[in-house]
Input
Amino acid sequence: MHTPASEKGQLKKKTQTEVCASCHRDKASKVDRSGHMPVREGKMECSTCHNIHGSTNVKLLRKGDSVADSCVSCHADKRGPFLWEHAPSRDGCTTCHDPHGAANDRMLVAKPPALCQRCHIATRHPSTIYDAGLVATSVRVFARSCVTCHSTIHGSNHPAGNMFVR
Output
């Protein structure tokens, strides 16, 4: 306290992330995985989402009663209500995203189509995107993503229905 290493908050390390990383190494290491990460870029800190001195909320979150509530406090466009709701969005953002960082775009826990195929097995589309019979004919193989067609993946109010298409 008498010799702080940080410019603000009288922290014993240079940044808040360094202080948190002394115990939460697994979370701090994920920050470096993403190409674009607001924490690493200095736009956010751990305390942006977490109340570091204690909270009655789950995971010491500042806002909401769940991880999803905390996420949609900033990402309001993902909140809904949607006429057709994608079930994983209702279950929580961490079903598909890792809020601390991931090697995949948009902090996804796996790359599409593998991420989608965790739940969508043998439904309307073949159960594997890399099926030898489809390589020459399927646009999904070239685009390599389900969200090429299913662009409103969090939910939709579009009259096209519950296929989450444009």
Q: What stands out?
A: The first helix runs from residue 16 to 21.
